[in-house]
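can u do me a favor
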């Protein structure tokens, strides 16, 4: 009997932690298991707030430094994962390794794979050097990260991209097109569903923002817009990010008592808040080199049947408009406030799709399980090509 192909997945985030990366890698692991591969994940010990681990595959967890919010974010935190990971990889048998960003983790995977003479696949959910540029981090830091990111992408046997836009950015690093595979992205449709409880039946009308809060998203646009709406309307943030403290300060100045920050919450709880919202708000600040991104929070909202209000331009704006998932607004407080009023005034707001239509669209176009199976096929091919 032949031994199943052994796949290692190296990621600082894995379920039960909440986040697009954790869900995406879980879907990949599930797809690999469906294909009959032997899967092992090298990840971190999750924070207590993540809840108990119910791993469906073997996960070897390692303690890691986290910031005050319990997140693995920042150079020191990344190094606390990447340095032990290098030795963990050297001591682990595998036919193929999958690396999740950041590029420093990719570098560890690339060098260890070179030493062990085995291929690796890079799962490009986004381009980190572009994100740094959007956050106005320039000079030596940006140049160094772009150099590392380019080295990793070019060394990979295959690169998995979550969208055609990300695939184009990967190609700009000189990666041959036949090594780039756009598999799409999606959401867990067993958790984000239209039918189910809402978080607070007696809540005031509110808009909800879930997920990462970074400078390049500039979610403060929604706080500034909220200040132009009636005082009974609220805005709720769930998640974390480098811009969180600035957003809290802005909320105190512009809309005191009307903006609530709930931190990182389980996916099931996030779904309850999304279901009860007038709309889910999503943003990417235009002109920062990140207009190709399609935030996962769009899919989460649509899967719950909730309309999406997107502030910005680019691929995500087109996705919301073309899919009939809600409405895209210009990136100004006045335009966003006008769109928010339209949501509150018109119960049928939400583009060309009904509530059920939005759910059907996600099922057909943004199933995370389907994306995981497509990504698994790329990994399987990379492993076989090494033999």
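np, heres the sequence
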């Amino acid at each position: 009997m032949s031994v199943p192909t052994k796949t290692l997945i190296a990621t600082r985030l894995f379920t039960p932690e909440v986040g697009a990366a954790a869900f995406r890698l879980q879907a990949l692991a599930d797809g690999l298991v469906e294909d009959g591969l032997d899967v092992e994940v090298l990840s971190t010990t999750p924070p207590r707030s993540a809840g108990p681990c119910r791993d469906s595959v073997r996960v070897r967890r390692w303690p890691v430094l986290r910031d005050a919010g319990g997140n693995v974010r920042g150079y020191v935190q990344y190094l606390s994962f990447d340095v032990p990971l290098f030795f963990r990889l050297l001591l682990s048998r595998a036919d193929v390794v999958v690396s999740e960003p950041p590029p420093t983790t990719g570098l560890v995977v690339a060098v260890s794979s070179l030493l062990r003479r085995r291929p690796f696949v890079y799962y490009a959910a986004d381009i980190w050097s572009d994100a740094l540029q959007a956050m106005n981090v320039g000079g030596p830091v940006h140049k160094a990260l772009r150099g590392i990111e380019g080295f990793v992408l070019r060394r990979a046997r295959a690169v998995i991209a979550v969208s055609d836009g990300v695939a184009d950015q990967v190609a700009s690093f000189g990666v041959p097109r036949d090594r780039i595979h756009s598999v799409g992205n999606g959401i867990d449709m067993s958790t984000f569903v239209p039918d189910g409880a809402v978080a607070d039946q007696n809540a005031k009308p509110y808009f909800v923002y879930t997920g990462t809060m970074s400078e390049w998203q500039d979610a403060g646009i929604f706080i500034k817009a909220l200040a132009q709406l009636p005082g009974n309307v609220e805005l709720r943030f769930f998640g974390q990010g480098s811009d969180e403290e600035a957003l809290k300060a802005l909320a105190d100045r512009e809309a005191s008592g009307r903006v609530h920050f709930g931190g990182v919450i389980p996916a099931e709880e996030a779904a309850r808040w999304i279901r009860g919202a007038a709309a889910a708000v999503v943003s990417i600040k235009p002109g920062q080199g990140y207009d190709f991104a399609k935030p996962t929070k769009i899919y989460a909202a649509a899967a719950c049947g909730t309309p999406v209000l997107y502030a910005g331009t680019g691929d995500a704006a087109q996705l919301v408009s073309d899919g009939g998932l809600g409405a895209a607004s210009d990136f100004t407080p006045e335009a966003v406030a006008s769109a928010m009023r339209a949501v509150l005034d018109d119960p049928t707001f939400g583009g060309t799709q009904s509530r059920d239509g939005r759910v059907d669209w996600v099922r057909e176009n943004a199933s995370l399980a389907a994306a995981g199976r497509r990504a698994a096929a790329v990994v399987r091919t990379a492993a076989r090509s090494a033999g």
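The chain is about 40% helix and 15% strand. hope that helps!!
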